[in-house]
Amino acid sequence: MPTTCETHVDFTVLDAASLLAIALGGTVGAQNGPAATRPRVVTGAAVVGVWRSPDGTVKLQLRRDGTYAGEVAGRRRPARGTYLVDGESVVLRDDSGLQTPVHVHDGELEMAGHRLRPAGV
């Protein structure tokens, strides 16, 4: 009986949260534990302002009109585009269409491995 061998290539792209959930045996967004709490929702007003990394290498300005401007030390072209607040996260979309997730946690922003604090702090 002849059989055919078809190669299957999976091009799934996973973010860090998905990979961590797989490694820990859970699912992304799963509520673990007996007392599930309501997810915290961040409003746009909570993130508006200037944010900086402690070492000064990253600066992010989130404006009230839904636009942002960012600077990264060593990068020639400043980042700019629009942002959208989504639950506990902010999604930056630059002029080229690239999307960057920013997580809001304990009064800080976490973006691409950088912790950003309000510039006045």
TrEMBL record:
InterPro entries: Atu4866-like_sf, Uncharacterised_Atu4866. It holds the Pfam family Atu4866. This is Atu4866 domain-containing protein. It comes from Actinoplanes sichuanensis.
